[in-house]
Amino acid sequence: xxxxxxxxxxxxxxxxxxKWQFVEERIRQMTKLxxxxxxxxxxxxxxxxxxxxxxDTTDVVQKEMYTFMDKGGRSITLKPEGTASVVRSFIESRxxxxxxxxxxxxxxxxxxxxxxxxxxxxxxxxxxxxxxxGAPLATEDAELISLxxxxxxxxxxxxxxxxxxxxxxxxxxAKYYEALRDFFRPKLGGMCExxxxxxxxxxxxxxxxxxxxxKEAAVGAPKMIDYLCEDCSSHFExxxxxxxxxxxxxxxxxxxxxxxxxxxxxxxxIIAKLPDGPLxxxxxxxxxxxxxxxxxxxxxxxxxxxxxxxxLMVMERVxxxxxxxxxxxxxxANYGDAARLxxxxxxxxxxxxxxxADIDHAGRSMRAQxxxxxxxxxGYVITIGEDEMAxxxxxxxxxxxxxxxxxxLSDAEGIAGEILRNLK
Length: 424
Prior knowledge:
This protein has helices at residues 17-33, 47-53, 59-64, 83-92, 138-154, 170-184, 193-201, 212-217, 230-245, 290-294, 308-317, 337-352, 366-375, 386-391, 412-423, and strands at residues 37-38, 44-46, 67-69, 75-78, 102-112, 124-133, 160-166, 251-252, 264-274, 277-286, 301-307, 330-334, 357-359, 380-384, 393-398, 404-408.
């Protein structure tokens, strides 16, 4: 057990971390272009935050949260999702009194849900997400959908589909709830216990149940878009027009309700069509009442979340290319105690000048050191031995072309300039 990660968790070994860094760098580039700033929140929060925001009728709260009592007798929960924590931080920092809208993102945020590990789903997972507060127009919904869509496509994911829906607001949802209860009431006896519990409190959750018998019972259920009030209907029409203006195709999917209670109006999912079936890579929507419900001012909100592990898995499935970077720009092979100290000094100077450099600390032979440099795809090799020490001169050798160029051992700036100029 000591050498096995806990069930539902997964290491990112040093041989794979470059893939995460590639995706994270691309996300940072594209969120910067959209004027977003990074937010970071704690790994755990007071349990009440998720009870009030996520909703006590959801699977997340009922089945999946990692909740415990701390030594002060407080109920603490490891974050099951990112939005509630960002909203809490926004309110506590009083950012609602700053320039609005507030546009932010979080990257590789650890989240925790106790559920059966399966295809692209872990108990500890990491999310990239975007939240925008203070922008009530549907054009903001479309812009965030476009951002998620463009990021995913830019990473080489093909076969994407955008599914959208509107789940209205509390005003129009009340009539819809009655229609749902009328539809499900004759079928309720054959449904799961969770659905029976949700029937009165939040009948929309019945549409999101994963039990096969409940999925069958939901076939032909009323659609929320048929019950939208004038404001919600207008908002949905603007969303569709904005997506059309950006040439983003979409499918209206009445089954999308999302698994969290705070959503209002727009909900969406970006789905990748894979050989073994569709997989959702991104989901989100609008939550215009959440900030007020958590204790802040009345203010619109909209956002999305994207699982990093799932995104990387989909990229691998579709054959998206992630270039593997060379580990070092230069490797300094050396032999002898005095030469090792000279190599250590030169290595330190080259790093200070922006060159990725390393030396041997294992006492290997020169032949073994050259083999190592070749295995790690070092761009250059420098050899320092007794002769080089005596002449105060080294040879900089390019590994691919085998071209060699002499330098004074003390000319770190000249060596660095040559390496960086040719590696651009």
